[in-house]
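INTERNAL AUDIT FORM
Audit reference: QA-55
Scope: verify that the stored structure record matches its stored sequence.
Auditor: D.O.
Record contents follow.
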Amino acid sequence: MLNRRHFIVTGAALFSQPLAAQSVIDPQTRTLLGGDITPAPVTSDLVEEVVPAPRAPVSPPNMWPVWDRRVTPANYDPMTTNPWGFHPRFLPTLVEANAGLRPGDIHVDAVARYLYHVRGDGTAMRYGVAIARGNLYEPGSYTVRRKAKWPTWRPTDAMIARDPQAYEQHSDGMDGGPNNPLGARAFYLFEGNRDTYLRIHGTPEPRSIGGRASSGCVRMVMAHIIGLYEEVNPGVTAILYPTENTVTARS
């Protein structure tokens, strides 16, 4: 993420020291009379006040277990616990995987708002998700090149330009933690070596699950993605399927 260095120019001018009392400047020739003291040169310099660069956002590892407990409900059972109040179909569910799917890969059904993680025994874990608003959702096949616990976050330049009132305040980045938009865990999606800035991540807004809410990413309940995190290895493929705008949902 990018750090900005700000400079404030005061515009104040610096003047030379006063001449000695016995020294006089001839106004016609601009030469020194009545003394042998050479006047200091007249200068006009701009004073540059350097403002310290903003500190880089941080996510202290010693806080990760504390935050994990904070976002995991008491007596948590992933398949039944639902203090968030969304439809029960979005709770983690073990389902049969279609033949031919590669174990480890992730499939996001943007129509039904499901994420599937394919297991090696012919099954898949299904989770409810939220996807991006409008045309911000980008279907395609991506590689999970990186994953992170309690990641820091900076909005993209496009997000800042699109909605400066919401995002400009975070232009220098945001610390990891329960209020960070990436939540407890994040998977970073790449096309080749190019970071797409698309993520599959936890969200501090779990009531958005099942809807279209993000600026391009796929959102999960934080407790759910904590459970999924250790099962996903960098290098697997994440396929984001088209939305209902381009395909017809099947029952």
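Auditor finding: record pair retrieved intact. Residues 64-71 form the longest helix (8 residues).
Action required: none
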